[in-house]
Design brief:
CATH architecture of the largest domain: Sandwich
Shape: rod-shaped
InterPro entries: Big_1_dom (IPR003344), Ig-like_fold (IPR013783), Invasin/intimin_cell_adhesion (IPR008964)
Radius of gyration: 47 Å
Number of strands: 32
Largest sheet: 8 strands, mixed
Strand content: over 45%
Number of helices: 0
Family: Belongs to the intimin/invasin family.
CATH topology of the largest domain: Immunoglobulin-like
Protein name: Ig-like domain repeat protein
Organism: Streptomyces lydicus
CATH class of the largest domain: Mainly Beta
């Protein structure tokens, strides 16, 4: 009866065992199995004519079983490529800065196929970052904000896996280059350079992050006496307030960011500027004013008058009132570089009945005022 040789399995990886079994031998016949360089194995067939031997796979090649009575049989063993467990690492963002969250993702594959359910330990030379479990795509991630500025070598190591691949202990590294922490800076400037009490002063704050403008930041301007106002930075990172309330002397103005949409930590960052305000001249003088009748003299536009005053602080607002400083306001003007201010107003039929007016302007001590006459123009 002829021998029939079967290999189970017929394809193995290097180091994996397989069984060579024959049927059709004569009961009690000694069957000799040979494979590659392994020692031949002689096995006595049982009463059914069956015999088997176990070998460890080394190379692809023939396995032979032979007996003195039943002859020989041959089968070929195939060695498959060894299973290869690989870890690849990726990180985002591409160029992080110190304190910024960085996500590290490990992808675990076995001969190119994702390995799900593997437990991955992420670490640096400074210690562990965290543990993740791979999903169906073979990916596990951790996110950390603790990476310092400089080159950080991150290692991902498989510490548990349910796969035919030998993945446990396999690791990979990636270097994450972290930039210096972003720096938010607030700088201040003011105009004019040498204001006097009562003169409008514009204070501008420029907010930058590592030198780049920060638009949309909300800035609170204040002095030791209280808030001056709030501004929002433009595309150039600048916000401004204008005030006429600064008293004579050294005024320390603080600009503080109270809200900002930026990767920089800007909220709470402030800058200061000292504005030295000179004393007001304190000699506001209202000049006599007269009005001319309009033609036709309508009740609501009965006459036109020009009001003027001198001695105001350059840039200060001068307000012209009928009668006293609490009277109706007819117009306002900004004092020029010489301290002169004037404006023209249309008077109604009731306003021409006033015989005087008062000019007022802010000063260090409160408000300066001066009164003068108002009548019909005779020429």
């Amino acid at each position: 009866m002829a021998l029939v040789l079967t290999l189970t399995p017929s394809t193995v990886s290097v180091g994996q065992t397989f069984q060579a079994a024959v049927t059709g031998a004569a009961p009690g016949e000694v069957i000799t199995f040979t494979y590659d360089a392994a020692l031949p194995q002689s096995v006595t067939a049982d009463a059914m004519g069956n015999a088997s031997a176990t070998f460890t796979g080394t190379t692809t090649g023939p396995v032979v079983a032979a007996g003195p009575t039943s002859g020989a049989a041959t089968a070929t063993l195939t060695i498959s490529a060894a299973e290869n467990c690989v870890i690849t690492l990726s990180t985002t963002p591409a160029k992080p800065t110190a304190g910024q969250p960085v996500t590290v993702t490990a992808t675990v594959t076995c001969n190119g196929a994702p390995v799900a359910g593997a437990t991955v330990l992420f670490s640096t030379t400074g210690g562990p970052l965290g543990i993740g479990v791979t999903n169906a795509a073979g990916q596990a991630s951790v996110t950390t904000s603790t990476l310092p500025a400089g080159a950080n070598v991150i290692t991902a190591t498989v510490i548990a896996a349910n796969t035919t691949c030998t993945c446990v202990g396999v690791s990979a590294t990636a270097t994450v280059n972290v930039g210096a922490a972003q720096s938010c800076v607030v700088t201040l400037s003011s105009t004019p350079a040498k204001p006097t009490a009562g003169q409008p002063v514009t204070v501008t704050a420029t907010v930058t992050c590592n030198g780049a403008p920060v638009p949309g930041a909300t800035v609170l301007f204040s002095t030791t006496g209280g808030p001056l106002g709030i501004g929002v930075t433009n595309a150039a990172g600048q916000a401004s307030v204008t005030t006429s309330t600064l008293p004579a002397g050294a005024n320390v103005i603080t600009a503080t960011v109270i809200a900002a949409n930026t990767t920089c930590t800007c909220v709470g960052v402030s800058g200061t500027e000292t504005v030295n305000v000179g004393a007001s001249t304190g000699r506001l003088t209202a000049n006599p004013a007269c009005y001319t009748l309009n033609l036709p003299p309508l009740p609501w536009a009965f006459a036109t008058a020009t009001f003027s005053a001198s001695g105001a602080t350059p840039g200060a607002v001068v307000t012209f009132h009928l009668d006293g400083p609490s009277g109706p306001v007819v117009c306002t003007a900004v004092a020029n570089a010489s301290g002169n201010a004037s404006c023209t107003a249309t008077l109604n039929i009731g306003q021409v009945l006033y015989s005087s007016y008062t000019a007022t302007t802010p000063s260090a001590g409160g408000t300066l005022s001066s009164s003068s006459t108002l009548g019909i123009c005779l020429t």
